[in-house]
Amino acid sequence: MQAAHRANDATPWLREVPDAFPMSPDATAPLEIDTDLASTWLTAFLRDEVGRRRGFDRVVVGLSGGVDSSLTAALAVAALGSEAVQGFLLPYRTSSDASREHALLCADRFGIATREIEITDAVDGYLEQFEPEAGGHRRGNVAARQRMIILFDQAFKLGALPLGTGNKSERLLGYYTWHADDSPPINPLGDLFKTQVWALARAVGVPEAIVGKPATADLIHGQTDEGDLGISYPEADLVLHHLLRGVTPSRLANAGFDAAKVEIVVGRLERTHWKRHLPTVAMLSATAIGEWYLRPVDY
Amino acid sequence: MTPPEPRRTFFGMTAHVTIAQFRPTKGNIEQTLDDMIQALVSASAADPGADLVVFPETALTGYFLEGGVREVARPAAEVFAEVTARYGAASSETVDVAFGFYELDAGHVYNAAMYARLGPDPELIHVQRKVFLPTYGVFQEERFVESGAGIRAFDGGHGRTAMLICEDAFHSISGTLAALDGATTILVLSASPARGAAPGAGVPGNLARWDLLGSGLASEHGIHVVVSQLVGFEGGKGFAGGSAAYSPRGERLVAGPLWDEALLTVQLEPREIADARTEEPLFADLERSWTRLLVNSPGAGVGRPAPDDRGDAP
Question: For B270-293, how does the pLDDT look when each residue is reduced to its tens digit (9 = 90+)?
């Protein structure tokens, strides 16, 4: 904890006053959260949003074996009860065994029923027949969208709502497939940085095997989020925190942040504003939806 | 059956106040009115001496309505008539009520608060329009509603009372004007979306700030302060509750739960106002100095240039 003012003999009444906005690569206090408060906050959100606002009593969650979907499932169980949460394992032929094991570990830990639907035939039915040359990026997008097709259809079948699992870090870095991971109507984690997801996941009892492993989209063997991004989540989260508060990249560099890594974050942030919006609609009238005709989602 | 004797005001007597920490059904006035009447009846059952029930800002409709305010805004008289009729069908007890609603008046829409007496002798006592309209961060009020012109106190059931609506209470001038108009009880009707989950306070950061505001407002003027907070999520933004009341010394008298509706009863002792003002006569100092302060402080002058039009700014 940094101290802006220190007590001395002349001011014995002046205790150490923490700087409200510490800014250095080592000052991680801004990312700390009260996990009890955050847990009750987000379970209250799910209860209100799923039940009271939208009239559903069940949700479906795609369980990837990662920390985001595991925490989402844990919060949904806390909010609605384990009977109200249906997990789906949606593996592709290249998905790792560890992902499957961890998804089942999460389901077992929180008492969630699961169903496994492999997406290989659906994905390869398109890719292998028509686009065999497609690289990993395109395959990842197709798989992510295929998973959402199944999740939404299963939700419809079960009279349930699909929950989104994307966190604030990947939303800000654009590290997800547009209109796939971000498409479920309710998302409890979208305003939590990845490091905050880790903290909350540990607090609510997500198994350490899941929380402690490197984050991965599990598209290619050995792939990790942080390897793809070129920066660790703790580093990226702190930079994002300051950028969102209006701190400039040069100030961050002056405060001791690695300028090259700051540039990675700034670059991804500035290239992906479009990804955090609905499609751009040409406006012709004076009553354009979302421009003039403004009604909130829950009105 | 002989109707109960209409009750008048009880200046100098203990006020039995119930804070209705309330979750409206967004945009559904019919359902919300039913729920408000139910809360009023429950408040009487919980505290048979309940004199005043205070609901939060926009209790009648929910807060984040964007352009929907034009569809739910109602004339104050119409809202009063509706509340009176529904309450009359449910109870014959006299009770005062304060609640927030979107007001339509001569083509203008306001974020307003109504103070009314319900029962055998109903009376619309006061309507306060929100003056300071937050239009930053998650807020867009200036786009959809207009600003009230002033802050006035009125004679409530237990003495001079004023209502401040959410950001109005963030400006210390609001409490000052209410106190100078004689208010010894300030009702703050709020819809404050929860923000900040840092460790320490155990409550969202905005509620920690509300605690400071409520306590400071009460102790600065030696008055009772009642803060009624909205509950529920609107489009991901959570109103956390955490309503509270403060003594004229700034002590918190009651604190509402987080995330849930609640009826919080609190008794406000008028004697404590005199005690606090005797121990620390800040309000007397204010009354004595106020006019002279205005005359001699350039910053208070009417016609002062706008902040971006001061050529002599350093």
Answer: 999 999 999 999 999 999 999 999
How many angstroms separate the CA atoms of B302 and B80, rounded? Answer: 36
- The pLDDT of residue A12 is above 70: no
| Closest residue to B259, CB basis, from A36, A44, A297 | A44
**CB pair distance less than 8 Å for B197 and A298:** no
Burial (CB count within 10 angstroms: exposed 0-12, middle 13-18, buried 19+), residue B15: buried
Q: Is residue A123 part of a domain?
A: yes
- The CATH code of the domain that includes A48 is 3.40.50.620
pLDDT one-digit tens code per residue, B6-50: 444 456 789 999 999 999 999 999 999 999 999 999 998 888 888
Closest to B59 measured CA to CA, from B25, B14, B85, B8: B25
Nearest CA-CA distance, residue B35 and chain A, Å: 14
Cα A40 from Cα B203, distance rounded (Å): 10
* Residue A103 domain boundaries: 29-232
In total, chain B counts a number of residues equal to 314
Q: Which residues of A touch B240 (CB under 8 A)?
A: 41
CATH superfamily of B15-297: Carbon-nitrogen hydrolase (3.60.110.10)
- Residue A21: pLDDT band with limits 50, 70, 90: low
pLDDT given for residue A215 in this prediction:
87
Domain contains A61: yes
Q: What's the average model confidence in pLDDT over A80-103?
A: 97
Q: Nearest CB to B68: which of A37, A40, A295?
A: A295
> CA-CA distance, B3 to A291, in Å (whole number)?
54
Does residue A251 fall inside a structural domain?
no
Structure-block tokens of residue A242: 């300051």
Question: Is it the case that residue B219 has pLDDT exceeding 90?
Answer: yes
Helix H or strand E encompassing A279? none
How many cross-chain Cβ pairs, A to B, lie less than 8 Å apart? 66
Q: Count CA atoms within 13 Å of residue A285 on its CB side.
A: 6
pLDDT digits (tens, 9 = 90+) for A133-171: 999 999 999 999 999 999 999 999 999 999 999 999 999
Chain B residues in contact with A34 (beta carbon < 8 A):
197-202
